Amino acid sequence: MSWQPELDELKRREAFAEELGGPDRVKRQHDGGRLTIRERIDMLADKGSFRELGKIAGMAEYDGRNDLEKLTPSNFVFGRAKVDGRRVIIGGDDFTVRGGSADATIKDKHLLCERMANELRLPLLRLVEGSGGGGSVKTIETTGRANVPGTAGWEMVVSNMGTVPRVGLGLGSVAGLGAAHLAATHYSVMLKDKSAVFVAGPPVVERLGQKLTKNELGGYKIQLRAGAVDHAVDTEAEAFECARRFLSYLPSSVYELPPRTECHDDPNRRTEWLIDAIPRDIRKVYKMRPIVEALVDEGSFFEMGRQYGKSVITGFARLDGWPVALMASDPYSYGGGWTADACRKVAKFVDLAETFHLPVVYLADCPGFHIGKEAEEAGTIKEGVRAMHAMWQTTVPWCAVVIRNLFGVAGAAHRSGGRFCTRYAWPSGRWGSLPLEGGIEAAYRGDLDAAEDRDAKMAEIEDRLGKLRSPFRSAETFLIEEIIDPRDTRALLCEFAGEAAPLRETGQSRHTMRP
Questions:
Q1: CATH class of residue range 272-503
Q2: Is 367:335 a contact under the CB 8 Å cutoff?
């Protein structure tokens, strides 16, 4: 006897699942300019590679003879797939079924998705829309009780943050537990104007007397500035491309090393304008990003968190094909000084590098911590110390290039102080406990007050100290190891990346990654 009737029943149930929330709700999703979860997975995954688990899990309706009449699928779809040939786990919310809320989900699917990624040691891509399996007040009616707040299985999310790359794409309105899933990632992307992220949405917040639209409450501009999300793009296709590119720099898990790619950019390439890149006038700023682009493999710089903690630029890059985590100061924001936000950004980025065994390159121009009443109210020194601890706890190789300023405690945080660090300085390098411009008035107040011509005395002191502050004086006493021609920097960085490659170890970091 054939089992064809059962296979036919399976196909019938799968057909129900493929209808998602039904034609009307699918149309509403499309009318809002958003794809359905199945369309998203088809666009993100390599063609034909997605292998779904639990496709026919959902809420079934039976007739009087216990024959299936209708099946409403669970609003979470997940499975194994390949992205650019790499095996991954993809899980996503189906907003067409109860907006992704808890009373239409099967929580075991969420848990198994996380567990699969963890135990198979595969990157996890979460496509988030709605509450991500979170709460709805209707759950009280459907279950007949109120749940005590809890996030079953969150321990697996915590473990995954220290084990596999976890990418979150916010592709619509994301609230509650969905927002938590988006925040608990190594890299996250929103859609401009089509997605919003919040702890609680506008209807709930309006009870506080704040009547706001979705974008006013949790639009991309707000979340990028807050550092809750790393990047925003116009289309879902762009979001998927960001995810692909992010993963290309990382191993599948901490038990592997980041992959090297073929390099078509000469590691010994010299960029002539670098010798003129830093103005002699210390009051003049310069653009750091063109310097970064000139030093790394052509087109390889992948910036993250550009709108948050702006005085520090962070991103991945390649040097002679080797992936590295790259930080650089941005003099256009607070002169490169570390704000509280910048400190938090540095700590998270350094943790990311340590977690996935990426060597760190830091192009440093830091005049110190941001100062003033605003800085004190933000707890800048506390956040700065946390960033320093994160740096000192790293075990990955470091290379610091002093571009211009290194002053104060924040200036000292340009390397992991307890370990060897490859370090170079450009001739434009300046360092000390604090800049002369701010310290002469305090240190030489008596001399200045006693002088007949205060301005002339100030110029005399500045000239005298300026000569003593020369980077060559520091090199004489081995306080700085090497002063280099800026045009040689790329070759030296590529050399560092190659030397660092065999020094990295696999496995979990002693300091587990936290969002």
A1: alpha beta
A2: yes
